[in-house]
């Protein structure tokens, strides 16, 4: 057997450099970049392996471990899971910073490879700098925290263990039904230890992402249910996008006339103005989709995990409405007592299109009327003005209308995802990139880097609030470093406006959700607003920035930004509370069962009334 003597870290880099995935006969190199923040737990291990060369992986310098891993998650999502960016960290706090990003990737079914450094396998210098000791077990380290948020976890305690660990890591990362975060914890001494690795382990390896075909029985059962429906509805989730089922969805809906609604992950698989497109569904959805959903007798859920925001906490659909779960993942396919159709979304939709020959949806007039009414509502929100200043929906509308077909919108948390799912009008395919499985604040600012790396020829506009910016914006600097023009659209409403709105709607006065000075008279955080100049902050990093208070300033800034070679930030001061409300939806939150406040008591009574009308599973 031919072997080559390498350190574990050198072998890891060479292995990753030779991994490919194949879909529909086309090969894609799976790893072209690697993010890292170097420290003593990795700089002389993986860092040395990357620096000495002999591979085709480009190193990207992260500025914060969580943030670079969020960028890597966004990259893989925008690439439809056909390429990843592994993330390397040191031990201790550097490793722990990536746990949140691991949860984000796993929640969204996105492949993310994390390579945190770890304490010494030999234990001779214990406790090493940044090592947390656990008295009940010497074998426990902080990287065990990844076990709860990863689909696969392994700790490589001998250099030869890399071979099985790496193979199983790639097994999960390339599995469309069982993917998410993967962690290979690497003790820092083992990173530098050598072993005679078989050359065959380091050869080019192609992982075939074969499409899972539906069985004849699945097709017949699903078609029978659909044919018996008077008011069926399709829900298009992220799985439509990841399986490249855009055209298959269009063909199914156009041939049968059945309308479809979009989840956050499914938005932009087809244009907003497609004849069968009802728009966003659920808590952050619009009136058209939610009204039609309430009356539906069969739900064809395609590539969606049916989260509480999609189903309005299982309140949106009638108790006797039958669900068909067309999903590659069995875990998701049986949710809500669904008839499972476990297969690739594109192949499943194609099979159903053929099986539904001659069927025609009878509720087109109602669906068209609901869509027309909703489009007029969107127009009114995009035109909304206030004497107090620039409204959030007006600013969003101006940017949406300015963007070109292939420009990409990015979002994740706060009130903007609701406004965007309801109002945003993408025309380009996969031009709407929303992380709403984890709703991870900071994804927008850092994920925009990943989206731009995935689509360097597209303009990327990322939408977020001042609360998100204060939490995590380190990779703005990486965008500058890499010469990437990203449009950072910061909507400053002086606090966490989405949570304040939720708080107020459930009967509690504003408390701890706005950015104000401590009031010496009341002792509470209800003093004057803190005057934060985010444009000046980003300008200090080297970005081109714009301070915006009016429509005219926003329009001028958008035009000027396209002449800039640098990333840009729009500091948009918007009227607090100028976001959209819910439409024909409900979201279950844990309201206080007892309270001295009448408004909270009323909110709890309202909760109990809605719970009566929800599906139990």
Structure in words:
36% of the residues lie in helices and 18% in strands. With 617 residues, it is an alpha/beta fold.
CATH superfamily of the largest domain: Thiamin diphosphate (ThDP)-binding fold, Pyr/PP domains
Give the CATH architecture of the largest domain.
Answer: 3-Layer(aba) Sandwich
Measure the end-to-end span: 55 Å
- The CATH class name of the largest domain reads Alpha Beta
From the 3D structure, determine the CATH topology of the largest domain.
Rossmann fold
Measured by DSSP, the beta-strand proportion falls in: 15-25%
- Estimate the helix proportion, in percent: 25-40%
Please summarize the sheet with the most strands: 6 strands, parallel
Q: Structural class of the secondary elements?
A: alpha/beta
Number of helices: 24
Give the neighbour order of strands across the main sheet: 5-4-6-7-9-8
Overall domain count: 3
How big is the Rg? 25 Å
The best one-word shape is: globular
Number of strands: 23
Mean pLDDT: 97
Unreliable stretches, pLDDT < 50, 5 or more residues? none
């Amino acid at each position: 057997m031919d072997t080559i003597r390498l350190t574990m870290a050198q072998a890891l880099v060479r292995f990753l450099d030779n991994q490919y995935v194949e879909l529909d006969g086309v090969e894609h190199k799976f790893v072209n970049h690697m993010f890292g923040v170097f420290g003593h737990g990795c700089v002389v291990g993986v860092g040395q392996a990357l620096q000495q060369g002999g591979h085709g992986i480009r190193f990207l310098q992260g500025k914060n471990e969580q943030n670079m891993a969020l960028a890597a998650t966004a990259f893989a999502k925008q690439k439809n899971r056909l390429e990843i960016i592994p993330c390397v960290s040191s031990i201790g706090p550097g490793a722990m910073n990536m746990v949140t990003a691991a949860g984000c990737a796993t929640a969204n079914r996105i492949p993310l490879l994390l390579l945190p450094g770890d304490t010494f396998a030999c234990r001779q210098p214990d406790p090493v700098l940044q090592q947390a000791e656990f008295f009940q077990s010497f074998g426990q380290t902080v990287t065990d925290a990844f076990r709860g948020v990863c689909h696969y976890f392994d700790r490589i305690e001998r250099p030869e263990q890399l071979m099985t660990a790496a193979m199983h890591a790639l097994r999960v990362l390339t599995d469309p039904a069982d993917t998410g975060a993967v962690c290979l914890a690497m003790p820092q001494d083992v990173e530098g230890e050598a072993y005679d690795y078989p050359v065959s382990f380091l050869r080019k390896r192609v992982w075939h992402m074969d499409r899972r075909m539906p069985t004849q029985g699945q097709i017949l059962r699903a078609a029978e249910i659909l044919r018996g429906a008077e008011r069926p509805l399709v829900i298009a989730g992220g799985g439509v996008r990841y399986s490249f089922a855009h055209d298959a969805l269009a063909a199914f809906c156009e041939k049968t006339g059945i309308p479809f609604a979009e989840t956050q992950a499914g938005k932009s698989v087809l244009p907003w103005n497609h004849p069968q497109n009802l728009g966003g569904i659920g808590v952050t959805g619009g009136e058209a989709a939610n009204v039609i959903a309430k009356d539906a007798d069969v739900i064809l859920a395609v590539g969606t995990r049916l989260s509480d925001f999609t189903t309005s906490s299982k309140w949106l659909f009638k108790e006797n409405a039958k669900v068909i779960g067309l999903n590659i993942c069995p875990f998701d396919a049986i949710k809500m007592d669904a008839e499972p159709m476990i297969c690739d979304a594109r192949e499943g939709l194609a099979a159903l299109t053929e099986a539904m020959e001659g069927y025609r949806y009878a509720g087109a007039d109602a669906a068209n009327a609901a869509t027309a009414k909703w489009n007029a509502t969107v127009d009114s929100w995009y035109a909304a003005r206030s004497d107090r200043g620039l409204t959030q929906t007006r600013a969003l509308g101006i940017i949406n209308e300015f963007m070109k077909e292939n420009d990409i919108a990015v979002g994740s948390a706060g009130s903007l995802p609701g406004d965007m799912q309801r109002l945003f009008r993408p025309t380009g395919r996969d031009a709407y990139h929303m992380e709403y499985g984890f709703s991870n604040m900071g994804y927008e600012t850092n994920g925009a880097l990943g989206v731009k790396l995935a689509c360097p020829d597209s303009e990327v506009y990322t939408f977020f609030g001042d609360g998100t910016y204060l939490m995590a914006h380190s990779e703005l600097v990486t965008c500058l470093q890499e010469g990437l023009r990203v449009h950072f659209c910061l909507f400053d409403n002086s606090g966490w406006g989405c949570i304040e709105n939720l708080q107020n709607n459930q009967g509690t006065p504003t408390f701890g959700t706005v950015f104000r000075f401590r009031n010496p008279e009341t002792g509470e955080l209800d003093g004057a607003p803190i005057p934060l100049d985010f444009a000046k902050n980003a300008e200090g990093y080297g970005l081109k920035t714009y301070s915006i208070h009016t429509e005219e300033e926003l329009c001028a800034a958008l035009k000027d930004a396209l002449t800039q070679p640098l990333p840009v930030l729009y500091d948009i001061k918007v009227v607090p509370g100028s976001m959209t409300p819910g439409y024909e939806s409900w979201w279950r939150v844990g309201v206080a069962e007892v309270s001295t406040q009448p408004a909270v008591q009323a909110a709890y009574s309202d909760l109990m009334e809605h719970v009566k009308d929800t599906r139990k599973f």
